[in-house]
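Q: I'm writing up a methods section and want to include an example of the input and output format. Could you take the sequence below and give the corresponding predicted structure tokens, formatted cleanly so I can copy it straight into the document?
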Amino acid sequence: MAIGDDERAQQVAALTGLTKLEAKHLAQLANSVASAREAGAKLPKDLHWSEEIALIFRLPVPGSGKP
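A: Here is the clean output for your methods example:
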């Protein structure tokens, strides 16, 4: 982690109500935030709305017997 990441992780934890995290958990939080930002930076920013990924969930018909 870079200098200031500890403080930033503590701020993020406090804002999300995670006030009792230990140092190792704060480090995991900082790594997760950094990974999410890196992954987000790799996503294309110029997608048309029709090209965006959409997850579709289908509920079973009541009484169909399928899970």
